[in-house]
């Protein structure tokens, strides 16, 4: 028998809110976590992305909050997730009068401090900004009753362990209920739990697959120059509703949205450079149906809250497998089916294999809709529009022009054929370019070329690892960090640490040379100051990276 939210012990105000949001039954993590959290027990919740973890810890805590004073702190690894959780707290606690404040870097300190002075019951923040406000004396955690570490594994991977411990140290351990939610449960998570939690209940929701089974996943192999033509064919033949398209860079998102709109597919772009107010405006227009396509960067993968998304399209394949999971997790929610489509070039087949290994399943290769299929779809839409117009005709209205044509001796078939021809001539057709075929043989040759290039790169120093990039050397600056092969670092680790900590696209990072005890990397001049500033506390496996200018 299926458990209801009412049986879990939630109060009527929350039950009414959940009914309004069409939450019929609790998920497994919600069913197992809500009762012990209501009973005051520390909880370790382990479940994959998209299983309802936010509601699992938010609902029982909101039920226990009083009307005055800061009582709940949620820590999240990124500002996007902090914003998403804050929105969920506001949504779930609306009938309870809950006031929530997201705090994160990139937003004015003054604005956040003013909100804190006015009074909130819940703060959702990133570790860095939260610790800054504590040290400034504007965020007092003395009376905090609930601390939630959301996506704890991600925070530890990003080097936030010292910040988290400092924040927990600013709370009262004797009166604090500590809640930790994570997709994975590493040894570092265990150490953190043992140190800061009391008799924690460990809830582990076993997942058969990393990605949901109700998401159909497929990929199309195309040359990079044919990507815009390929996505146009997909959009036209499948006519998706609420589509999220991911690009690798902010510039790429803006350019793709502009190109799609120019081709007759209304699209808007959203990325981390936009102000919160502008992002909310764009999202609201998307929710309201003014555009069916939202183009976003990876920074938005966890921050977009759309009730229903039929398609997620990876215009650029992600560099990290976990980002693929986060991206496609935006569709196939609440029991609905979803479509996850990825465009790859022959050189990116290796990235696809890495993703397949990570998610434990094969992603099907599909054939792009043919030119004939697109034209057939257009003909079908044209016919449906005419039929709809005929069905809307009430039969009582007599058009004078038709009467004149009949008087001139034209029969109805002649008139209808002429009108159809006229309508066709007035149609504005979307571009329909030829797409060059990609042969498997060419793909294998490309792979051999990559292997040959790698052997050439490594011939001079067998211990050196390189990450080749096409870039202008004059625009790059060489940096060095005092960790290397002896520490187990790899090029992917360097890209992840720099990109996630400094909030820059991993694709702009140039060559990476890993030596025994040092790693050299090239960064565009425009990003150097930001990277050096953000990486002051960067760590890899607990060791300080010490990123500085190379001599």
Characterise this structure.
It is a single chain. With 551 residues, this protein is of the alpha/beta class. The protein has four domains: 6-204, P-loop containing nucleotide triphosphate hydrolases (Rossmann fold, 3-Layer(aba) Sandwich), CATH 3.40.50; 215-368, 3-Layer(aba) Sandwich (Rossmann fold); 372-426, no CATH class; 462-549, RRM (RNA recognition motif) domain (Alpha-Beta Plaits, 2-Layer Sandwich). The chain is built from 20 helices and 20 strands. It has helices spanning 12-20, 28-38, 53-63, 79-92, 109-118, 127-135, 152-157, 161-169, 187-196, 227-238, 250-262, 276-287, 321-328, 349-359, 371-392, 400-407, 412-426, 440-458, 491-502, 525-534; strands at 43-46, 72-75, 100-103, 122-125, 146-150, 177-182, 201-204, 215-221, 243-246, 267-270, 293-296, 311-314, 338-344, 364-365, 476-481, 512-514, 519-524, 539-540, 543-544, 548-549. Helix 2 packs parallel to helix 3 (53-63) and helix 13 packs across helix 14. It starts with 11 loop residues before the first helix and ends with a strand. Mean pLDDT is 82; it is low at 440-471.
